[in-house]
């Protein structure tokens, strides 16, 4: 069966609940406005079961109603992540089992970029979005070089620490600095390592296009909102599978 | 509601914390940092930045350091050079930045004269701290204080100070007693304090002197409108701890987050840098009548809240020792803890009550800061709302001083207007329905709660004993990963290059004055 509707207490009843705020003083007009919004959202009939003033200028509503939409599960399209999402515990276990040593991750902000917010969100134990950073992972050895690291210094750190992966964060995008810096970085790694032996190169930042990996010469690009667990899972997936770095 | 704990056990725990803390204080008094020296210049009135945003205090400290090193402090060389530059600190800083000044360490009568002038200049800043404190006390007396405890603590964080202001005023009108302006992510790792009013930040707003001033002025207006003084909170943490403390004290902020070990553990800031910076920052907070908030809740976001409960108690005891040593009084100690036990653990609420009561029993006169669940807020907002209700109930029953309002949309979105309203309804319902429930109940002397509290206190005493037994005491314990699971050796971490061991000639008029209150506190 590919056609379904929301379920309240009877098959096919189509019942949903929503809550929202309108920037309007609490009044009969406000309730009517909420009802109108619910109708426009496809809820028909709808019931405003709760409305409450929040200050002089806002009203909060809870609305129940029947939606007239049908959902066809055959037409659902999802982009699947191409690696499994692991908990820190699972990631540690996989590294221990396959690498048999800690995974070494070197991170930095390169160029003149002093915004360590991205790299710190991923690496610092404090983490991001309720997830702990890579420092929290017992089997990951994190070397956070911080801000304004030159490309040669980054390469040198990667070589001496025998990095499995290099994480670079770029926040500043004036005159496409993030793209230029990333290309310079990947070129330097190509030069410094024999083919197929360089560490995984991962860049992240709010303005990158995640599909530009080939153009920039890196293995993976992570965009805004990426969490530490996603990065860790990707690194585990790539360093413990047979596939060599590109 | 109080626990029946043996006062001798509590006294033993305090004595151990003092023993663990003393060598750290001794180490702190033997070192200075670039941030300590910059804070001194800020108290002397040096403000502003060059067109690239580098503050003049950074320029001046760097210039002195390049000529004669940091170990003598900047006061003597700067005030010795000042006479030749029109007695104008800003001018001296500008000329020093341009490489037009050579600093040297004065001796004898020259040194005495420089010290006298430095003392006078820094005295103006310290007088401003005193004036802020008096102004706060006067405002509270005139317009009234928060109506009841716990004080309700709400956060604003838009990144833009001009957006923060109306949000903070709205939050105060909705019932907040305390407004905290969250800082931009990463500010803790900046080795300078940004300048001016700022409109862009990452998940928070930069802490600057001008942002402090603007927000305090706006809340003064709202305080008068509401007939109760609304307190303002920011962060004295990271690489600029004492500078931000000085700015906060001068601009009459009321509470500051200021943990003894947070920067070390969670931001990888060098331990020596942190302890040196922290001591002056706390001395300034003490002088300015600021309430500090410590960060023990953070340990429980990394370590298990049941297994690591004793690390919270241990850290509270250490934070108390360092705070009192710096001259802070009990009413200024917002020691932290949090409701972070996995709700799937059997008896989780009883365990939370035990931990919260333990803190209240050990620190009866401190306004404990009680932090809401974050770790087990999953996106199921309905369950989250219930969990926040239990958090509020535990806070009410155990008489917590500062209650950070939990949001059911924690880990989902930055709080919406309706989230904040629902959260405040939750708090009000629990306080009105059960705010004085503690009067009716006392934990059975040998019951689950009392036994659990004793167990945690016992583990804390064991841990303090182990810390003292390490060759380098607390520094080794921090290096070993005792707190929050993070290993932070004393010879590593950010900001280490900004630390220097004091020379015989070292002089700092700010610490000379503020050390007096530390001595009084110890007597």
UniProtKB/TrEMBL annotation, chain A:
Pfam families: B12-binding, OAM_dimer. This is Lysine 2,3-aminomutase. Residues 102-246 form the B12-binding domain. It comes from the Bacteria. GO terms for molecular function: cobalamin binding; metal ion binding; protein dimerization activity. InterPro entries: Cobalamin-bd, Cobalamin-bd_sf, KamE_N, KamE_N_sf.
Automatic annotation (TrEMBL), chain B:
Residues 3-511 form the D-Lysine 5,6-aminomutase alpha subunit domain. GO terms for molecular function: catalytic activity; cobalamin binding. InterPro entries: Cbl-dep_enz_cat, Lys-AminoMut_A, Lys-AminoMut_asu_sf. It holds the Pfam family Lys-AminoMut_A. This is Lysine 2,3-aminomutase. It comes from Nocardioides turkmenicus.
């Amino acid at each position: 069966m590919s056609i379904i509707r929301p379920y309240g207490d009877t098959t096919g009843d189509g019942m949903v609940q929503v809550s929202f705020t309108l920037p309007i003083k609490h009044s009969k007009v406000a309730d009517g406005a909420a009802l109108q919004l619910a109708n426009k959202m496809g809820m028909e009939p709808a019931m405003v079961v709760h409305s409450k003033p929040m200050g002089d200028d806002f009203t909060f509503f809870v609305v129940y109603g029947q939606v007239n939409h049908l959902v066809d599960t055959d037409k659902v399209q999802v982009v699947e992540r191409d690696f499994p999402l692991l908990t820190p515990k699972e990631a540690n276990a996989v590294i221990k089992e396959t690498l048999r040593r800690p995974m070494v991750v070197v991170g930095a902000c390169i160029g003149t970029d002093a915004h360590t917010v991205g790299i710190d969100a991923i690496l610092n134990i404090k983490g991001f979005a309720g997830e702990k950073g890579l420092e929290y992972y017992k089997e990951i050895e994190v070397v956070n070089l911080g801000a304004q690291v030159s490309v040669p210094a980054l390469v040198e750190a990667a070589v001496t620490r025998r990095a499995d992966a290099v994480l670079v964060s770029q926040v500043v995008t004036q005159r496409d600095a993030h793209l230029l810096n990333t290309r310079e970085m990947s070129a330097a790694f190509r030069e410094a390592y024999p083919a197929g032996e360089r560490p995984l190169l991962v860049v992240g930042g709010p303005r990158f296009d995640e599909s530009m990996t080939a153009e920039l010469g890196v293995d993976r690009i992570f965009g805004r909102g990426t969490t530490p667990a996603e990065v860790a899972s990707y690194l585990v997936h790539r360093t413990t599978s047979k596939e060599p770095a590109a | 509601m109080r626990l029946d704990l043996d006062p001798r056990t509590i006294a033993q725990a305090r004595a151990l914390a003092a023993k663990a803390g003393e060598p750290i204080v001794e180490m702190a008094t033997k070192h200075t940092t670039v941030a300590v020296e910059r804070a001194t210049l800020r108290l002397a009135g040096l403000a502003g930045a060059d067109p690239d945003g580098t503050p003049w205090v950074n320029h001046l400290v760097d210039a002195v350091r390049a000529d004669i090193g940091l170990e003598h402090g900047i006061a003597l060389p700067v005030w010795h050079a000042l006479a030749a530059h029109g007695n104008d600190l800003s001018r001296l800083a500008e000329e020093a930045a341009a490489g037009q000044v050579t600093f040297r360490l004065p001796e004898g009568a020259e040194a005495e004269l420089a010290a006298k002038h430095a003392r006078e200049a820094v005295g103006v800043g310290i007088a401003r701290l005193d004036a802020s404190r008096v102004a706060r006390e006067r405002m509270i007396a005139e317009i009234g204080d928060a109506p009841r405890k716990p004080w309700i603590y709400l956060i604003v964080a838009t990144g833009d100070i001009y957006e923060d202001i109306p949000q903070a005023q709205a939050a105060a009108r909705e019932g907040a007693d305390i407004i905290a302006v969250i800082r931009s992510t990463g500010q803790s790792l900046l080795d300078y304090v940004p300048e001016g009013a700022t409109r862009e930040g990452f998940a928070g707003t930069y802490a600057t002197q001008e942002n402090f001033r603007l927000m305090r002025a706006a809340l003064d207006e709202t305080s008068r409108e509401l007939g109760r003084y609304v307190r303002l909170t920011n962060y004295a943490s990271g690489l600029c701890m004492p500078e931000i403390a000085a700015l906060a004290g001068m601009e009459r902020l009321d509470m500051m987050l200021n943990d003894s070990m947070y920067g070390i553990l969670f931001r990888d800031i060098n331990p020596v840098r942190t302890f040196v910076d922290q001591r002056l920052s706390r001395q300034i907070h003490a002088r300015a009548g600021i309430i500090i908030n410590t960060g023990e809740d953070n340990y429980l976001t990394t370590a298990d809240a049941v297994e690591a409960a004793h690390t919270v108690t241990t850290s509270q005891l250490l934070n108390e020792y360092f705070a009192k040593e710096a001259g802070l009084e009990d009413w200024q100690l917002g020691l932290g803890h949090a409701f972070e036990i996995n709700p799937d653990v059997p008896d989780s609420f009883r365990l939370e009550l035990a931990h919260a009561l333990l803190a209240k029993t050990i620190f009866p006169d401190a306004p404990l800061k009680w932090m809401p669940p974050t770790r087990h807020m999953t996106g199921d907002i309905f369950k989250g709302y219930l969990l926040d209700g239990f958090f509020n109930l535990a806070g009410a029953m155990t008489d917590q001083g500062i209650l950070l309002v939990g949001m059911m949309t924690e880990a989902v979105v930055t709080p919406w207007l309706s989230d904040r309203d629902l959260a405040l309804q939750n708090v009000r319902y629990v306080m009105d329905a059960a705010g004085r429930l503690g009067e009716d109940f006392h934990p059975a002397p040998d019951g689950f709660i009392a036994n659990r509290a004793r167990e945690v206190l016992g583990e804390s005493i064991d841990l303090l004993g182990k810390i003292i037994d390490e060759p380098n005491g607390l520094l080794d314990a921090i290096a070993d990963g005792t707190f929050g699971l993070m290993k932070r050796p004393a010879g590593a971490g950010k900001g280490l290059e900004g630390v220097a061991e004091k020379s015989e000639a070292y002089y700092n008029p700010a610490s000379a004055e503020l050390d007096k209150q530390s001595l009084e506190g110890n007597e």
